[in-house]
Write a structure and sequence with these properties.
With 504 residues, this protein is of the alpha/beta class. 27% of the residues lie in helices and 23% in strands. The strands form 3 sheets. The protein has a 9-stranded mixed beta sheet. The chain binds zinc ion.
Length: 504
């Protein structure tokens, strides 16, 4: 194939419509565990060797001798709605960037697929529509999506092709960008592409979506063999349940050279998911049960308590203290909680200085119902700037930049509990967070991580056991308890669960 000019842009947000805080423009500008807003050719250096979809797309395109024209890339930590101001500004930057590129042969977008703005339920559908309007109906347009995309009919109609991560923890982000390039390449070689889009009739809670366990392990392991011959790409997006929108939930997207083949294989994948419905398990335990079991463990390796509902990577405020309170009440030893987001406390600790004791209200400040801070005395063990190189496969090549951090220890109760406090939200999915604060995670008895599934990439190999803990947080994992208003009638609220009947 003749060398092509491919314009590329990235705009990532996962929107939890039940979370307390919005995502304004500034959240997309600043860096966190991922890079901040980056423009034009600066993206070549920023994306180099990172496990991000755009990085994978750029590498694949370069390998095949094509030229990419980077416009921008940005992301914000998951939260509630993207402000309309942020959506309009970033969409305008992408579309004007495209208008300024003469004779583009194709466009690639690195998008999440679960963005909800203050006005648009389907943020990516709206973005794709504006991009399509800018480039016209005939310029090929492909995009890669997150595993948690709530894929919509509009996205499928507007893009020529969509690829979706196949792992949770997301260790294949760059690979998925590379697969978007492969799909574009096939598109360039053929007259047209045929599509299939199927919505699954039930929602799947995030803790039950892990691809290291059944049934997702088997479902996802089948995709490479289903993608062959006239089937150019086939994916299953597990969906992001805390998004109160009509098209919330899992879906399959399939592309290929004949409609008959695409339909046949899409039906096969759909049936695999339907047959697996009874196998999805959402095994949540209370804080008390988890702390007691962890304290009773005689294994040398740590027990991980996953604070699944306060995961900032799913829109949690990352400042709830339910598990912390249980650790202190049970007199837990060898315990570390990470990362509790409380910039005010980090400031107080910094003013007091390392070695001093502070009496404070810790966490619980994000204004959620039934959430209060933990009041107590803490020793300031360590103060550090939150800049460190991540070590997990998922965050390969990433340098976190999350502002000042503090390590505190509880001093007014009979326990050994330490807390890593941060001033920007970052999901605790990387062992580097502990090491950066001088803690050897392997040597602890109990590690509390504010994460739902992603921690498993780095923490499973060093831990003996994991409990998924149902503690307060803005990422509700029992879907039957969620007060949805906008789902489509008939969708089951959980695998094998009751049907949603909101509009009758
Ligand atoms: Zn995801």
């Amino acid at each position: 194939m003749k060398a092509k000019k491919i314009a590329i842009a990235g705009f990532q947000h996962e929107t939890n419509t039940f979370a307390p805080m919005l995502a304004p423009y500034e959240e997309f500008v600043k860096a966190d565990a991922w890079p901040g807003l980056t423009l034009g050719d600066d993206l070549c250096a920023v994306m180099n060797n990172k496990n991000l979809p755009m990085a994978g797309f750029m590498a694949a395109a370069a390998n095949r001798g094509h030229r990419v024209l980077p416009i921008l890339w940005c992301s914000a930590e998951p939260s509630s709605y993207v402000t309309q101001d942020a959506f309009e500004r970033i969409s305008d930057m992408i579309c004007s960037g495209l208008s300024n590129q003469p004779q583009v042969d194709a466009v690639y977008l690195d998008i999440h697929g679960a963005m909800v703005t203050e006005v648009f339920d389907d943020g990516e559908g709206e973005l794709l529509s504006r991009v399509r309007e800018t480039i016209g109906p005939d310029t090929p347009l492909v995009a890669s999506l997150d595993f948690h995309a709530n894929v919509t009919q509009r996205m499928v109609e507007l893009a020529d092709g969509l690829t979706v991560f196949r792992t949770y923890p997301h260790v294949d982000m760059a690979l998925t960008g590379g697969r978007a390039f492969d799909l574009l390449d096939l598109l360039h070689q053929h007259e047209r592409i045929y599509k299939s889009f199927k919505k699954i009739p039930f929602l799947i809670p995030c803790p039950a979506q892990c691809t290291k366990f059944e049934p997702c392990r088997s479902i996802y392991s089948r995709l490479p063999e289903l993608q062959r011959g006239d089937v150019w790409s086939i994916d299953f997006a597990a969906g992001f349940p805390p998004a109160d929108i009509h098209e919330c939930g899992p879906a399959t997207v399939t592309y290929g050279g004949t409609q008959a083949q695409v339909d046949r294989v899409a039906d096969e994948l759909y049936q695999l998911v339907i047959d697996a419905e009874p196998e999805f398990e959402n095994l949540l335990v209370t804080s008390d049960t988890a702390v007691r079991a962890a304290m009773a463990s005689e294994n040398e390796k740590p027990v991980v308590l996953a604070d699944v509902q306060d995961n900032p990577g799913a829109g949690g405020s990352s400042d709830t203290v339910g598990i912390l309170q249980a650790l202190i009440e049970h007199g837990a030893t060898g315990s570390v909680v990470a990362i509790l987001n409380d910039p005010g406390t980090v400031g107080v600790a910094a003013n007091a200085g390392a070695g001093s004791v502070i009496s404070i209200e810790l966490g619980g400040k994000s204004g959620q119902i039934n959430q209060v801070p933990y009041q107590g005395a803490f020793k300031v063990e360590k103060l550090r700037e939150g800049r460190f190189v991540c070590a997990s496969t998922m965050y390969e090549g990433m340098e976190a930049d999350i502002g000042p951090m503090a390590l505190l220890s509880v001093v007014d109760r009979d326990c050994d509990v330490r807390i890593i406090v941060g001033s920007e939200r970052m999901q605790c999915l990387d062992l580097a967070i502990f090491r950066h604060m001088g803690i050897q995670p392997e040597k602890q008895k109990i590690l509390v991580v504010k994460s739902t599934v992603h921690f498993r990439d780095d923490f499973d190999p060093i831990s003996s056991e994991t409990f998924l803990v149902e503690a307060p947080g803005a990422h509700p994992c029992r879907l039957l308890n969620i007060d949805y208003k906008n789902l489509r009638d008939g969708v089951r609220l959980e695998p094998m669960g009751p049907e949603y009947r909101g509009q009758t």
